[in-house]
Design a protein that fits this description.
about 160 residues; mainly alpha
């Protein structure tokens, strides 16, 4: 059994280019890279299944039969790749609508973690309220209403009683 060198070269090119594109910051390049990776993996399944043979129906003809399992796996992988690509296209379109570009933005929390690590500061504990940023809507800080002392009650004027 010999493998087709042209298919192996196509697999290497598709997987290498797809991996490079997935690591980019543009969502359209990430999508193209994902499709290339999917096609490369599908070719891996077909090359690994062996040489082509006759249809996998017992009793028809002589010779080796083709294994149907890799073909079924490739069909499933094609459907999954199509679904993920459609979802990625929807994300890229929505990002284009909101920001006018499709570049992936930096994560602010990730930058905070990197800065703390560079300064050799320990990360803030979940329970440590004084360590950093306030809770949602400032829930961990006392409000002005809680801090204000209660106003002394003024003597109430006697109520007039109507007879």
């Amino acid at each position: 059994m010999s493998t087709n060198i042209v298919l192996v070269a196509a697999i290497v090119v598709l997987v290498a280019c797809g991996t490079t594109l997935v690591l980019e910051r543009s969502l359209t390049r990430i999508l193209v890279g994902f499709v290339m990776l999917g096609n490369g993996v599908n070719l891996v399944f077909l090359v690994a299944s062996g040489p082509a043979g006759r249809a996998p129906i017992i009793g028809l003809g002589e010779g080796t039969m083709t294994d149907p399992l890799p073909q079924a796996m490739v069909l499933t992988a094609i459907v999954i790749t199509l679904g993920v690509t459609a979802f990625g296209l929807a994300l890229a379109y929505r990002a284009w609508q909101l920001t006018g570009h499709d570049d992936v933005q930096d994560d602010v929390e990730d930058d905070l973690v990197i800065r703390r690590a560079d300064l050799d500061h320990p990360s803030a504990s979940f329970d440590d309220v004084t360590a950093g940023m306030p809770d949602e809507e400032g829930g961990d800080e006392p409000s002005a209403v809680d801090e204000a002392p209660a106003a002394p009650e003024s003597p109430a004027a006697p109520a007039k009683e109507d007879a």
